[in-house]
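Consider this:
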Amino acid sequence: MDVIFTFILSGILLLGGNNAQSINQTSAPQLILEGAPVLLECTYKTSGYPYLSWYVQYPGKAPVLFLQDTRKEEENGFTAKHDIKTESFHIRKAQAEVTDSGLYFCVVGDTVNKAHSSPVT
C-alpha cells in the first residue's frame, strides 16, 4: 500500500548590507506518494552573490541545515542544483520516502554580517 505524506514549504530571506533580495518557493503543501519523485523549487532575486541553503524540520524536531550550494549538495537521496542564470536552487529526490515528511525552508542571504530572517509565504 502506498503511503501519502506532505512536504510543506516555506522561505526565509536573510538580509545584510544594501543588497536587495527576494525569495519564492512553492507555497502550498505537497502531497507525494511514497516512491514518487520529489521536486522542491526555490527561486530568488538578489543584487549580490547569494548564499543558499535548505533547512528541514521533521515532525516534533527543531529545524536543521539540510543542503547548501557551497558545501553540501546531496543528503538522504536529495540533490540540490544552484543555477545562477535562472536564479534557482531546487532540490530533487528520485523516490520519496515516508521519513522525508517535514517542513522544508529555502534560505537566501548574502555574506554580510548582522543578517536577520523573516518568513516569506
